# Entry
Amino acid sequence: MTIKNHRTSVAPWLFSLLAITCTPAFAEQASTPPSNLLTAAVAWKQTAAEFEALYYQGFNIARLQLDRALQEHKAGDRPLAIISDVDDTVLSSNSYWGYMINSGKEFFDDEAWDKWVADNGPVATPGAVEFLKYAQSKGVEVFYVTSRDQGEKTYEYALANLRKNQLPYADDQHLTVYRDSSNKEPRQQEIAKDHNVVLMLGDNLNDFKRKYYVADVKQRSSLMTEDKEQFGRKFILFPNPTDGHWLKAIFGDSEPPATAENRAKFKAAAGANAWQVKD
Ligand SMILES: [Mg+2]
# Structure
């Protein structure tokens, strides 16, 4: 049976509705997901002054702690050092996420990320350059430890991203890039042999300790709580509502594919511990 054969038997309003729904624009709209679950997170990153203020807050606290460590530092002590993550800590990924929203993409897209990195897309986060240059002015070395993989040019791109944004210590003695692992502890331990690491900067708990790398929401929370005294002291944490290992705790994968199943999981995670109307 075709619509044409039934023209005379359907009500005129139903025929009009069918005509509208068969237009290409409607068909395209109907085939796209109802909403991108990251829209609110990206809108917040892109527009909220509060998001920027949290970076200033983090770097202001870092400076207070650094000044305290400098006052306590005595001749002969191991030199002070800072270990910092790169993405979403000292370099912002906002323009990449804006691209993702404009392209109708959800979750994470490795191909787009790699092109954005190679195109020198990242810009410094608010307060990062000022704080790290302050540390440098006090003779405190900054070591960058990051996990990235853009193939053979991974290291070159990471260095270029830091240098383009005038971040100090952008050289091969101070930048470590792990291509095959997100475990940063081997390099962290190496740095700690010769330095007193007074601050660690990151947007992901895994930037501080590998023990947080677990795929369970409640376990992550309880491991973090064990170290609650460290936040704002040694660990300076920056906000990231779009990516990181908190996603691994929900999906079992830090970069889950944008499937209907994962969209449902994301929605279920957002609705956990929800208030329910009492009749
Ligand atoms: Mg990061």
